[in-house]
Amino acid sequence: MPSTLHIPARVRRHAALAAVVATGLAVTIGAWLFVRAGVEAQQQARFGEIVSASTAAVRDRMEAYTQMLRATRAAVTALERPPAAREFQVYAESLALQDHYPGIQGLGWAVALSPRAVPAHEAAERAAGRDGYRVWPEGDRPFYSAIVHLYPLDWRNARAIGFDMYSEPIRRAAMERARNTGDVEASGKVELVQEAGAERQAGFLLYAAVLARKGDPASLVGWMYAPFRATDLVASALESVGRHPVSVAVYDGAKPDPAQLLHDDGDAPDRPRRALERRIPVAGRTWLLRFTALPGFATRTERALPPATIALGLALTALLAWITRTEVRARGRAEQAARRTAFLAGAGKALAASLDYDRTLGRVARLAAGRVADACLICVLEPDGPLWRVAHRDPATARRLADGLAAAGVEPAKLAVLPASHPRIRPGPASVPPAPTTPELARVLAGAGLEVALSAPLGARGEALGAVTFLATRARTLGRADAALVEDLVRLAAAAVDTARLYRRAQEAVHARDEFLSIASHELKTPLTSLALQSESLLATARRERSESLERKAEVVRRNVDRLTRLVASLLDLTRITAGRLELELEDVDLAALAADVVERFGDEATRAGCALRLHAPEPVIGRWDRLRLDQVLTNLLSNAVKYGPGRPVDVRVSGEGRRATLAVEDRGIGVSEADQRRIFDRFERAVSKRNYGGFGLGLWIVRRIVEALGGRVSIESAPGAGATFLVELPRVAELAPVPRAEQHPGAPAR
User: Fold this and answer.
1) Domain Histidine kinase, which positions (predicted)?
2) Is 445 helix (H, G, I), strand (E, B) or coil?
């Protein structure tokens, strides 16, 4: 069989630490990659949203300009002649270009001219008040155009009046497409004639041809057009999107040709981390929009999150490494402490299982000998001699130790030299206080190799009870943890022994009390019987002689004799029930008739208390019960009702249903609080002060015990000031239940 590989503890500790560090670094790197990917995805999504919104803003703005030119062309076509200066101005002002069409340079009208029509056109415009008006640039051309109206006519737009846009190839191409297609067409990149100074921008124009006859290019009258400065246009279009750290470049065409660059923010880095291109149609042409994220696109949080993840991961790795190192070092100590804690828990459980410490201390000794030391010896000083409980891993050695201790006897004075706390470990030769170390005991200890002892005294409330001793060989050392364990075990064992002895004494006192009450009850019963007969005779004599004074006194004597008789009977029942000697004689009983007898017997007492007794028993309720005990139950309940509800009616109800019979007594007295309703059925318990109401507090306890002995149950429904209803439920055939002795712990020592 191959031998098991043994890994030294030092190697295990280092391997665990290395595994924690490696795992922490791997998790840190994984978390960093995950966070970085998440940040990258978040930035890309935000960048995509900005690009989409910006593209839509430019596209929608150009579509609005195109629709505006179509509407303007329709208005001019409806005139069926070129617009006059005043008409054009009014129309342009109604459009509110700067408010509704921001970014546009202006709205203009350019007339189409043949070479022969140019002089007449110039003359007409000069005659209309435009001194110096001319069509320019000069030169012979087969076809001319001239900007006649341009609104608003500011200094920049005024520079364009009379300009022949058809003379410039790029503009001419767009104007011809507009004439031929009948739709709005955009020019390529140009520099507007309005540009002046250093702040020059690239521009473009939108054209809508006005034809005299729809669909006939030969009937060309002129063009409605709109010039644009590209940068102003893009800036105004992107205002609705907001400012973002994103650079935008716009090209005329589907490719990023620098020669066709219309607009560029000029901030894009040479090697951007992210860039997107979008193409949009603009009046018959295609524009390329190139978006580039600037270095400041990432937020401060996004820039800080990946390095923060690494820093946090390294910090947690260092913390886990420190915790692991500490845990590995403490693991051995913790395992030892756990074993000792388990021992104390087992010892506590064994001691709590019974009050007979003869058995429980033996279990604790065997438990200690198996888990803590090689041997455990427990001595309890008893009046009739010491009680030794000895345990060893080897049962034969345990028997030899027990024999040696029995022969050695005890010297109680040895307990006085033991420290009451912090017991000390004594290396050999071992001794077992309070036993003297006789030669025979020394031989047994030496033969078992027991050379190290750890002893502590058992004591409670200043009384020496004995001692506990752990014994071990040289190979098994006992340390400070074992000393603390012995100290804890001594406290548990001393408390168990002291509790058992106190319980035994309490049981003996209760037994003596019960014996006295039983004897006293029997001794009082005989003179009370004679006294009752004499009081009845005296009452009868007083009534015959019609002596009211004597009759009142005889009545008082009889009532007190009856009360004393009931008290003595209660004491006698207390002793019988406590001793478990409550005897029941079952017979067929009509509960309704029995209730009627008791109610009639209580008539005089109820009258004196001002209580009206009302019996509700419509039909016989037959069952097999003890007649005298049921009489006692109803008597006690009626006595309580009259006592606590004087001057108010008391109802007694008897009913039967199926196999159950019910007896209810309802008064309108002071009532019982919910907190007191459970305890009033216990022995010597009362819900009111004994100064105001007499009695021992036994009546309801006797009622409960009798009812439970008959297999039934008794309960109460009450509230303070609202009276009380006592409900007795019985089986028709009594299910006799054993009457337990007065509460005794199941494990109490029978000594």
Assistant:
1) 519-734
2) helix
Going by their DSSP bridges, the two strands 185-186 and 463-472 should be labelled as unpaired
Question: Residue 449: what pLDDT?
Answer: 78
List pLDDT tens digits, range 98-117. Answer: 888 888 999 999 999 999 99
Residue 135 near residue 162, CB atoms below 8 Å: yes
- Determine contact, residues 216/99, Cβ cutoff 8 Å: no
SS3 annotation, 649-685: CEEEEEEEECCEEEEEEEECCCCCCHHHCCHHHCCCC
* Residue from 472, 455, 479, 444 nearest 378 by CA: 455
The closest of 153, 199, 144 to 171, measured between CA atoms, is 144
pLDDT of residue 750: 42
Report residue 387 as tokens: 């009680």
HSE-up (13 A, CA, CB side) for residue 533:
5
How many whole angstroms separate alpha carbon 20 and alpha carbon 23?
5
Radius of gyration of the chain (CA): 58
Give me 382's structure tokens.
Answer: 């008893």
Nearest by Cα to 287 from 252, 249, 235 = 252
Mapped onto helix, strand or coil, the DSSP state of residue 40 is: helix
d(CA 58, CA 66): 12
Residue type, 418: L
pLDDT tens digit string along 339-380? 778 878 888 888 888 888 888 888 888 888 877 788 888 888
Tens-place pLDDT, residues 545-555:
777 777 677 66
**Rounded Cα–Cα distance for residues 543 and 560 (Å):** 19
pLDDT in tens, 128-142: 889 989 999 999 999
User: Which two three-digit tokens encode residue 298?
Assistant: 């990432």
User: Angle, to 10 degrees, between the axis of helix 548-578 and the axis of helix 699-709?
Assistant: 50
Distance CA 576, CA 579 (A): 5
Structure confidence by residue, pLDDT tens digits, 661-671: 999 999 988 88
Q: Is the pLDDT of residue 749 over 60?
A: no
Q: What is the mean pLDDT of the chain?
A: 83
What pLDDT does residue 470 have?
81
Lowest-confidence range among 117-121, 552-556, 649-653? 552-556
Read off the tokens for 707: 């009812």
379-396 pLDDT per residue, tens: 888 888 888 888 888 888
Whole-number Cα distances in Å, 472 to 372, 422, 520 = 9, 18, 59
The 8 Å CB, 24+ separation contacts for 745-751 are 745/355, 745/503, 746/354, 747/353, 747/354, 747/355, 747/356, 748/355, 748/356, 748/500, 748/503, 748/504, 748/507, 749/355, 749/356, 749/357, 749/358, 749/500, 749/503, 749/504, 751/504
Decide: residue 391, CB within 10 A, 0-12 exposed, 13-18 middle, 19+ buried. buried
CA distance 727 to 746: 32
**H or E segment and range at residue 552:** helix 548-578
Q: What is the DSSP letter of 1?
A: -
Please state whether the predicted TM-score (pTM) of the whole model is above 0.70.
Answer: no
Q: Which residues pair with 94 in a beta bridge?
A: none
Looking at 215-354, list the stretches that DSSP marks H as alpha helix, in order from N- to C-terminal side: 230-238, 300-352
